Amino acid sequence: MLANLFLSSTNYNCSPLALIHSDLHGPLPVATYQDYKYWITFIDDFTCFKAVYLLKTKSHTFNVFKKYKA
Fold first, then answer.
1. Number of other residues whose CB lies within 10 A of the CB of residue 45
2. Element (H or E) spanning 40, and its range?
3. Beta carbons of 61 and 24 less than 8 angstroms apart
4. Digitized pLDDT (tens) for each residue of the chain, 70 residues in all
5. Fewer Cβ in 10 A, N or C end of the chain?
6. Within 10 Å of residue 40's Cβ, how many Cβ atoms?
7. What single DSSP character describes residue 57?
8. Where are the domains of the chain?
9. pTM for this entry
């Protein structure tokens, strides 16, 4: 029998933007019509607010995060 691999956490975030989960994907095999080759997701752990942004290059990641945070 398998043990519970994912234990319940006793830590909870008390405010928005305290913990953000993110995933960057790409490059896509075919760019979009506007030449986007990557996408990134952000999920706020407290509010569960989700956002997806398209990126032309990975170097745009931090600027997109600043947009999300604002």
1. 15
2. strand 38-44
3. yes
4. 555 666 666 667 789 999 999 999 999 999 999 999 999 999 999 999 999 999 999 999 999 999 999 9
5. N
6. 20
7. S
8. 20-69
9. 0.79
